[in-house]
């Protein structure tokens, strides 16, 4: 809401020339959603510093998401297979036993 204040720490993906006291605006979808002033420049934390590290981190996240999606799909397939089986050991329709053979003639 207009007039609200907050403090946050931002970790930039790319190197940018920034200085204390510089004004900035955060934009999303072509609209300004926040504006502020850089109050302090913090030292680098444990953050990816090269493009390769960033890509490796993204690939690991994508792999983890794919594994989660695959396990959900497998669970859904298992549930669907269990639902297709008749309950209580009933035989499916059309599975009638063949007629008994006639006794041999004398």
UniProtKB/TrEMBL annotation:
Bias (Low complexity): 73-106
Source species of the chain: Paramecium tetraurelia
GO molecular function: GTP binding; translation elongation factor activity
Disordered: annotated segments: 49-106
Key word Secreted present: no
Entries under SUPFAM superfamilies matching the protein: EF-Tu/eEF-1alpha/eIF2-gamma C-terminal domain
Domain of life according to the entry: Eukaryota
Record lineage: Eukaryota, Sar, Alveolata, Ciliophora, Intramacronucleata
Ranges of Basic and acidic residues composition bias in the record: 53-72
Pfam families linked to this entry: GTP_EFTU_D3
Every Translation elongation factor EFTu/EF1A C-terminal domain range: 1-41
InterPro entries: Transl_elong_EF1A/Init_IF2_C, Transl_elong_EFTu/EF1A_C
Record-given protein name: Translation elongation factor EFTu/EF1A C-terminal domain-containing protein
UniProt keywords, alphabetically: Elongation factor, GTP-binding, Nucleotide-binding, Protein biosynthesis
């Amino acid at each position: 809401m207009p007039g609200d204040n907050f403090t946050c720490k931002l970790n930039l993906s790319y190197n940018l020339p920034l200085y204390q006291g510089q004004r900035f605006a955060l934009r999303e979808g072509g609209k300004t959603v926040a504006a502020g002033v850089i109050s302090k420049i913090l030292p680098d934390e444990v953050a990816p510093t090269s493009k390769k590290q960033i890509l490796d981190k993204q690939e690991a996240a994508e792999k983890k998401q794919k594994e989660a999606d695959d396990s959900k799909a497998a669970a859904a397939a298992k549930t669907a297979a269990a639902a297709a089986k008749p309950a209580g050991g009933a035989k499916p329709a059309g599975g009638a036993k063949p007629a008994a053979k006639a006794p041999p003639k004398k």
